Amino acid sequence: MASQPFHDRPGVIWYNGEFVPWQSATVHVLSHGLHYGSGVFEGERAYGGQIFKLDEHTRRLHDSAAILGFEIPYSGEEINRASQELLVRQGHEDAYVRPIAWRGSEMMGVSAQQNRINVAIAVWEWPSYFKPEEKLKGIRLDMAQYRRPDPMTAPSKSKATGLYMICTLSKHDAERKGYADAMMLDWRGRVAEATGANVFFVKDGVIHTPTPDCFLDGITRRTVIDLAKRRGYQVIERTIMPEEMAEFEQAFLTGTAAEVTPVSEIGPYTFKVGEIAKNLMEDYSAVVQPAKQKLAVNG
Fold first, then answer.
1. CATH number for the domain formed by residue range(s) 132-288
2. Where are the beta strands (DSSP E) in 104-190?
3. Which of 14, 218, 250, 290 shows a CA-CA span of 20 to 30 A to 73?
4. Taking a C-beta distance cutoff of 8 angstroms, is the pair 83, 124 a contact?
């Protein structure tokens, strides 16, 4: 399934209020979202037939659109209902869910205030974001060339399509060098995030994570912080400079796709896959897959 192109898959996609054949869910080549990056999206995971924190993701989708100056023409309840029905129609228990909204092709130019706002949702099976053997021993990250921009120069609180262009460039460059991903600094030279996941570090039993003032405060990030606090771990959100990575013992990424993924290397800095990262991997798995965990316990 992983090698099958995304434009040619079985099933349906929810597109502007209707379930249409997968191959028919197309956009015009002159869509504003394609040329100017005027779109917003979410990445969600379904476990055991349930979409994890669906309502939080849908609210963020609406918030992202508002930051980009447009209104999604479907309520949160409508998008949630469509997402859940689509998951059933596609016949997947464990899957990735991708809602997206973008400006259409009615006007072409920087200004596109009369363009229709299109909305689509797709669901597909999704394996581990990183190779399982890499994840267990900790993935390796390069240091990215590009930096997360100043919030005064980009709508950094929006999960906007255009903001991911530098992430794609950075991840491609890292993969060419044999790394799994890349660590991005912000415009001030501070540690920010990976190309599609937030980052955490551990020193002397205390968890440290960058303050999300110019990148997304991820839903998985907040979930893991809550799980860490339940275990009694201290979590400090603060400015982290790159040279501090030499002092940290553990590192891990969090995100809808990455879940909780230990890191063994970031540029010149190395880390061990320690107890805290392993515990949070297990805790996160228990939260997102309660039905499977219960089955495993009961045999």
1. 3.20.10.10
2. 117-124, 139-143, 181-185
3. 218
4. no
